[in-house]
Amino acid sequence: MIEVSNLVKKYGDFTAVQGISFNVAKGEILGLLGPNGAGKSTTMKILSAFMPASSGSVKVAGFDVFDEPFEVKKRVGYLPETPPLYQEMRVRDYIEYVADLKHLEKARRKERVDFVIDRCGLKENERRIIGTMSKGFKQRVGIAQALVHDPEVVILDEPTVGLDPVQIVEIRNLIKDLAGNHTVILSTHILPEVVMTCDKVVLINHGKVMVDDTVGALTRGGTGDTLEQAYLKIVTGESRVHTHV
């Protein structure tokens, strides 16, 4: 579903993403894990056709992000770290507005808006003004807008940052429910987020892939580091590459 090959992003003399490569299978939840400043958000912006890369190749559902960005955007739902919400709008009005922006056919619009409002646990709050809601509910609205056009791929950048423990569990469960019907990429710097939610993990640091394997294999450790050990080495400055082919 997603193929990333030798992806590079430069900002002047600074290289934020240094030739990373990974694949994500259809229906899989991938955790893009790394400390702050590792290059996660930059990578996700490129995958969602929000930002151009300097070089490399990215395909989403068979479409090239650089040559066919509009086709990619039709198939991707994107939630940036700060949800793109209009605080003065009511929940339903906002989601209907996003459905219109994404050119959802009128025949399906009400059905999809009703579906994502229910799926994201917003039914009792659909008439509330977004600015009056808690951060957890705002995150739900952000996820709802990413899902309203029924995308094949859902990209979520730090979806649980700033939430309380109950809200974190609720958002994790919502993300896990998306698997199968959607391919999900979840960016986070929180290790338990990946262990509790994802099928596969790509661990990056300083814009480079350090680990690419299934969460199950990395949790067991085998002959190599566990995911916890690998991440600890990166955080403390001692790291090595561990990939599964």
Task: Give the SSE layout.
Blueprint: E1 2-11, E2 14-24, E3 29-33, H1 40-47, E4 55-60, E5 63-64, H2 69-75, E6 76-79, H3 91-101, H4 106-119, H5 135-147, E7 153-157, H6 165-178, E8 183-188, H7 191-197, E9 200-205, E10 208-214, H8 215-220, H9 227-235, E11 242-243
Parallel strand pairs: 3-8, 3-9, 6-7, 7-8, 10-11
Antiparallel strand pairs: 1-2, 1-4, 4-5, 9-10
Q: In words, what does this structure look like?
A:
By secondary structure, this protein is α/β, with parallel strands linked by helices. It has a single domain (2-243), classed as Rossmann fold, CATH 3.40.50. Helices cover 36% and strands 26% of the residues. The chain has helices spanning 40-47, 69-75, 91-101, 106-119, 135-147, 165-178, 191-197, 215-220, 227-235; strands spanning 2-11, 14-24, 29-33, 55-60, 63-64, 76-79, 153-157, 183-188, 200-205, 208-214, 242-243. It has a 7-stranded mixed sheet with strand order 6-7-8-3-9-10-11, with helices on both faces. Strands 2-1-4-5 form a 4-stranded antiparallel sheet, covered by helices on one side. Helix 3 crosses helix 4 and helix 4 packs antiparallel against helix 5. The chain is globular and about 50 Å long.
